[in-house]
Amino acid sequence: METRVAIIGIIVQDEKSVEILNNILHEYGKYIIGRMGIPYRTKHINIISIAVDAPQDVISALSGKIGKLQGISTKTAYSNIVTTE
User: What does pTM read for this prediction?
Assistant: First the structure.
């Protein structure tokens, strides 16, 4: 199985979607290398960075599910390194 390392950047504007977001991240937990969350109280948003190592289709599915949530924006940056497990 080929995997890639990627970073998923998430901006949370609607706190009503946080529980669903956390459930999705838990579902993909075995692929998550690390997670960093920064509350930006002045702007009333949260900034989350998720590092993953997963097959391309898994990364796309995770990013797609997150991007469909109301009040949440996401972008994914992929490394050029592909590894085989």
Answer: 0.92
